[in-house]
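Fold this sequence, please.
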Amino acid sequence: MQGVLTGFAVIGVVIAVGYLIGVRGSLGEHGRDVLTKLAFNVASPALLFTTLARADLSVIFSSGLLVTMLSTAAVAGVFVVVGVVRGWGVGRTTIGALCSSYVNSGNLGIPISVYVLGNASLVAPVMLFQLVVVSPLALTVLDLSGAGEKGPLWLRLLTPLRNPIALGSLAGVAVAGAGVHVPGPVMNPLTLIGNMAVPAVLIGFGISLRGSSLPGRGVERWPVLLSVALKSLGQPVIAWVLAVAVFGMRGAGLLDVVVTSALPAAQNLYTYASRYRVGEGLARDSILLSTVLSVPVLVVVAALLG
């Protein structure tokens, strides 16, 4: 359980630093917005490019990834159906669907993969799937829904080619697929810039907690509770059923897919919500609650399947 505790301890400390910065007002009135824009437009694209440019794309062809894809689609689909019926709006429903299915494969997934699963590369397929497929698709929906920049339809249809997150991901995949070696003088500055992404996201998230109400209350109560239930319980259960009943997985392979599915919602979803000014409270509360709940869930999963 050292991996679980280590991952959560690191995240908790950095978020707490962000909260203290918010309380003290050290970054001024617009500090959170600056951090969000920095993470979205500069640091995250650099991080995604450097991560994917060095990735072994062959790892995506596995039964474990199919389980992840199907469980992601299932829980996100449930939230979308409920969002449509309840009239929560395209942007808000998109953020909620992400919070229901998009796992924290980076700053939590990697240490947990090392200490619980014994291999950091096991989280790579999930990370690639989310970076290459889920993020560009969701951000395109947000842009086309009107949450992003306005403009002619033909220009909005080119959103994936203009979105910095999508561009960073697609460029990294292109470099990895072509087998191109990026020289150090180019890769090293990008790596340094990319290293700002996770701290900026976590600190910005911590600042947002200042003065906020208890999670799961107010107008976002039901979307938050639904997304947290789907993320913390629905996704790992669906992944377990699919892995056992459909793919016949057992042992370490089964543990891998269920653990990765049980990871909480990723902090960068709050960056997306803040960037598009939609569902910010939903993203903040869902991330916080799913992160807290994932501790006992991961402990139970590891105890039953480990």
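The chain has one domain: 2-305. The mean pLDDT is 84.
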